[in-house]
Design goal:
The protein has one domain. It has 3 helices and 9 strands, in the order H-E-E-H-E-E-E-E-H-E-E-E. The strands form 2 sheets. Strands 6-5-4-3-8-9 form a 6-stranded antiparallel beta sheet. Helix content is 20%, strand content 51%. It is elongated and about 55 Å long.
């Protein structure tokens, strides 16, 4: 009896892990250009039916991305060079059938727009393009760095990432001036 219970618990955990991995951060692209480090990324499979339903009900839906630029330090704790917090949100108006989209970077409104196109809403919420992290003057030449991104969604009841509170991903690069 205990063996059977243990087996089914293991199966349930594996199934939950597969569901959690369904949504992920794909294509994290750190770029060093014009004396700046900028990052682009896209969430895969994050714009689910539950998210679409939450938006169409009029709930403000927000995707928050925590970006960290870290330097790899062998045999020690990696050093954080820069951080940024980006929030993309959608407030749908049922009367006018328009989406009010807002992008906030580090507490400042970076961009705002209004649209009726759901494809624009999906791209707005799940894609970051050229978010500036730091100046290259803050980097050491010929060192390894990585960008780590953690993403979460609100409202939580939309079960965007299933059992996980946030999903994370990272991409490594070597700074060569």
């Amino acid at each position: 009896m205990m063996r059977r219970l243990g087996f089914w618990c293991a199966v349930a955990l594996l199934a939950a892990g597969a569901v959690v991995r369904a949504a992920g951060i794909g294509r994290i692209l750190p770029i060093v250009r014009d004396d700046q480090v900028v990052v682009s990324c896209e969430l895969t499979d994050a714009y689910t039916d539950e998210v679409r339903d939450a938006i169409s009900s009029g709930l403000r839906t927000t995707f928050t991305y925590d970006l960290e630029l870290r330097m790899v330090v062998p045999a020690w704790v990696d050093r954080t060079i820069a951080t940024a917090v980006v929030s993309t949100s959608d407030q749908y108006d049922n009367l006018t059938r328009r989406h009010s989209l807002t992008r906030v970077v580090n507490g400042r409104v970076d961009e705002a727009t209004v649209t009726e196109d759901e494809a624009v809403v999906k791209q707005w919420l799940t894609t970051l393009t050229r978010v500036p992290l730091t100046q290259t003057a803050n980097l050491n030449a010929n060192r390894d760095y990585y960008v780590r991104i953690s993403a979460r969604a609100r409202p939580r009841g939309s079960s965007l990432f299933s059992f996980a509170d946030a999903i994370t991903g990272s991409a490594k690069f070597t700074f060569i001036p």
